[in-house]
Amino acid sequence: MSRIYRFVAIVLIICLSSGAIGQEIFKGKIIDATTKEPVAGASIHCSAGCSCGCITNSLGEFELKPRANCCVSFRISSLGYQPQTINTNSSATIVNLQLENTVLQSVVVTANRELTKRSSAPVAITSISSKMIQDAKPITVDQVLNKVSGVYMVNLGNEQHSMSIRQPMTTKSLFLYLEDGIPVRTTGLFNHNALLEMNMAAVKNIEVIKGPSSSLYGSEAIGGVVNFITIAPTALPVAKLSLQGNTIGYKRADLQTSFSSGKWGFALSGYYADKRNSFIQYTDFHKANLTARIDYRFSEKTTLVNSVTWLDYYSDMTGSIDSADYADKSFESTQTFTYRKVNALRYRSTLTHIWNNNCKTNASVVFRNNSIGQNPAYAIRNDYRKLSSGTWVGQKDLAHGEINESAFKSYAAIIQHRQNLNWKKAVFIGGINVDLSPSTYSADYIRINRDTVSNIYTSYKPTDSVLTNYRTAMNNYASFINFEFNPVEKLRVVASLRYDLFRYNFDNHLKPSSYSGSPDTVNYFSRVSTKIGFTYNLSSSIGFYANYSEGFVPPQVTEMYKGVKVPELKPSVFYNYEVGGWAEIIKGKMSADLSVYMLKGTNEIISVRMDDGSTQNMNAGRTLHKGIELGLNINPVSSINIRFSGALSRHEFVDFVEKGSSYNGNLMNGAPAWMHNAEIWWKPAFANGLRLGLEWQKLGSYFMDPLNTVKYNGYDVFHFRVGYKWRAMEVWMNVMNATGKYYAYTASKSNSGYSYTPAEPRNFNMGISYDFGHLFKSK
């Protein structure tokens, strides 16, 4: 009997041992190959087709027990990434997932304020990936934004800019800039230089929605929305230092650090840029930018994200040059003291809770503290001037100017809830937004001394004359909903609705007059914005969309309260009709996207000359914008990528009479009919880590004035980039304007003459970076 017991014991031991061997734990971590951030929700499934599998947690970690003699390899997949297969012969694995090349599989956030597949969003949206940003090594945002079809960000020097997205090149409040889905600035105080406040060292990727999106994001989302998505704490330690500089006086140092430990995640990113003695006189600048982020994971369902960004910016303000200096290639400045300085602080805290697989809520509180101080070159007026009669009057050595400051503090709260419904794959997203933003504006008159021989403004003298001094309490209350569902299998319908209410409480600190502005008043503006569209996927590789959307812009504070009296103004409203599509023409080799739009602008604010010779802002302008946008991505072999982005458009005045001049039927100035950006990258397999790229930017001709009297011919410019990455070190060189083309970023004509912003000549930007993070990685 004892022999039987011993036999049974031996059998049990063998069985248990075999079971233990077959159930050895296989664990690892899935991360983004470029950003090193964890990939949450990635699927790990047995390649043999059995039921073994799991998904990664919020830290990108997975753990499973594969079956013996079955699960020798696993397939890892996640939306927006290329699938990958790994073997189970390692007990600890780190898997780097590469982003998907096709637009159909890319994932976007901005389309509906939540993660969604690009092929489910009925909008023209483009994502500039982290890989594209890291390959390009841009020193200004326009060097990557201009790769998007229909987008032209105008470089005005030292990160200052204007914008063109389904609009002419303009400084008007027709574009909305977001950071992680939250507006960078408050409504009613648009600044066309707002993107100089962005910390590009902290940016992971950028999403661009073209066309109105007021139904989701509110006012100013007319021509387009640009959302800068910042880096999150990484799964592996990162401690990267970068140094770079170019041959026209620019120098920059970057810092990127990030790591996760237990429930905590930390990231610190920033850079300091400085430029001295550039090719244009009096264009020095410096910028310091720092972003700190701390994440805390209470549990798998609840996380808290805290982020703060600080900016200190100063730039000489040289202004543009006239036609004579442009023709002579003379870059001497008439300015010696004009400047622009910006100080900004943005703080955001977001609490996210996942109630279950179908239900999620997040709540954000936001604080902004922003000031822009200027001694602006554009405000200088010579005292010596020519009257309409032809007579010259005034003092030749005297000019008039001002020193001004615009500042605001903003306190905002955003609550958003997502609910998946068990009906037709329906999703409901709704929320409320409150933004309380008191702002101030002041301007003091200065007397300027002018050298009558050289025409240089040599010095200025402050006076006790106050031109403007007021405070405006701006409150914005909004609620929004987004609903989408599949009435049939391949059709997805998306509709969104938003209500905005604005209250401007204007308090003039001076006695109202023709110089100091309008009397105290309270103004209300409200608007319901709608959007409805659908996507239809004919197959897994081709689909199309259509949408109707509305956008609006309430009057800006400066449009309301800088005149003698407060004008009766309404929000400008834009109506957009759009169709488009996407296709993977050759699987894994060629994909394309196309959009066709018509955008009608109504109630646009224009300046009307009154009978007494004064001017007053009124709602009277109507414009029409039409265009076709095309994007093409080709990978003929694994080592070569070709990208083409082009736009054919027409922008015209329909009913626009400003200051006595009629532009009806004319093309809008600063609106090229054709522009494109094309690029080819070669990453040879025989030299792992090497990349070579050539970019071609074309801007077609356009009228320089709204009367259509003179054209600028546009330009073609080429940039060459080369870089090499070896382990933790990377070196690169970008040859910007490689052919030495002489051209202007923008050119215009007005009653005071011609104005050009010269582009940078050929210059070489060289950099080196090293990631010390590997020194801190666990063995």
| CATH architecture verdict of the largest domain | Beta Barrel
Separation of the first and last Cα atoms = 52 Å
Number of helical elements: 6
Q: Roughly what is the average pLDDT, rounded to an integer?
A: 91
Taken together, the total number of domains comes to 2
CATH topology of the largest domain: Maltoporin, Chain A
SS class? mainly beta
The CATH superfamily of the largest domain appears as TonB-dependent receptor, beta-barrel domain
What percent of residues are in strands? Answer: over 45%
Low-confidence stretches at least 5 residues in length (pLDDT < 50)?
10-22
* CA-based shape: globular
Report the top-level CATH class of the largest domain: Mainly Beta
Please state the CA-atom Rg, rounded to the nearest Å.
29 Å
The helix content, as a percent range, equals: under 10%
Biggest sheet layout: 22 strands, antiparallel, barrel
Q: How many extended strands?
A: 47
Written account of the structure:
The protein is mainly β and 779 residues long. It folds into two domains: 2-97, Carboxypeptidase-like, regulatory domain (Immunoglobulin-like, Sandwich), CATH 2.60.40.1120; 227-776, Maltoporin, Chain A. Helices cover 6% and strands 57% of the residues. The chain has six helices and 47 strands. The strands form ten sheets. It has a 22-stranded antiparallel barrel. It has a five-stranded mixed beta sheet with strand order 10-15-16-13-14. It starts with a helix and ends in an 8-residue tail after the last strand. Mean pLDDT is 91; it is low at 10-22.
